[in-house]
């Protein structure tokens, strides 16, 4: 079909314009729902957050707390387009110490992400108060609010408390990272959430065996494998560790209990370790038969517990008091009646002991020194009473009935 030259030129120009328009439309046709925010790393091993890890003047930090990746599955249309994304970071707090008896939103910060050229790495170590770009995009902080529904005076009180203590108070914190297509945060594209529990240990108190040096007469131990008992507050992190150290105390050589703790340890037996690691949730531990130096009769021993945990400024440690105890001298197999009575009292209990050995008890005149006892009709060394006492102390066995013959 023949068209005049003017018509041909018109058709060519029209076709070219249509192609250009279609190309531009295809290049800018980015569907924001193809973007995803993905958690690459979140530091949940930290038990305590200290302000020393953050420069409060610049907002910068060298401790990696989080690392998020924002990316699109449609790389052809969504990278280098003119579309913007908005990233909202929110923190909700439950901390009775701060007055939050239920979760409340406390901090919100909104960032505009523009000129997105590739996947965006969003790490706290790459950011400070003046940051206007991050790998993969330009960034502008649009909003920063502190306090949530709290009054201004309450917010200032909270800020002062944090500043004075130099750390984030104990509590539970929820971190939300929300990706939206609008500044107000209504049109959510994707979000991730993480809760961390910040409960820094405050105390670890040892209970038995032992006490102060002046109490050794009343804290004599009759079991060569004593059970150590303690109490401590809860630490929910797997990074809370508890260790025990046992050393001999020689009054002729050591000037004090701390001096004895610095000497070679009986437990751990390996001198390259300061403390013997225990189950972090335990509150008792029996001195091991294997893997430790044996405790000797008539000697004094000191012990201490150490609790260690990770913080934003490195490992912190919490130490218990130092207790000292004396292991009774058994003088071979012969044991005097007072020693027997102490062991038997621990096995049968205070009430049953009073019934049997009290002033009107069937065994009130028990005074003989013995080396053997009968157990289920068989004679056994008196030393096996200590094993029975140990099992009773650890609730491994229960005494149902006691009879005297």
Task: Explain this structure.
- The structure is a single chain.
- This protein is an alpha+beta fold and about 400 residues long.
- The protein has 3 domains: about 30-200, no CATH class; about 205-325, Immunoglobulins (Immunoglobulin-like, Sandwich), CATH 2.60.40.10; about 335-395, no CATH class.
- The protein is built from 7 helices and 20 strands.
- The protein has helices spanning about 5-30, 75-80, 150-165, 255-260, 335-350, 350-355, 385-395, and strands at about 35-40, 65-70, 85-95, 100-115, 120-125, 135, 135-145, 170-180, 190-200, 205-210, 225-230, 240-250, 265, 275-280, 285, 300-310, 315-320, 325, 370-375, 380.
- A hairpin with a 2-residue loop joins β6 (about 135) and β7.
- The chain starts with a helix and ends in a 12-residue tail after the last helix.
SSE ordering: HEEHEEEEEHEEEEEHEEEEEEHHEEH
Number of helices: 7
* Shape verdict: elongated
Which percent band covers the strand fraction? 25-35%
Number of domains: 3
Total count of strands: 20
Query: How confident overall, as mean pLDDT?
Result: 77
Low-confidence stretches: 5-27, 332-337
Major sheet: size, sense and barrel closure? 6 strands, antiparallel
Provide the helix percentage. 10-25%
Secondary-structure-derived class: alpha+beta
Radius of gyration: 35 Å
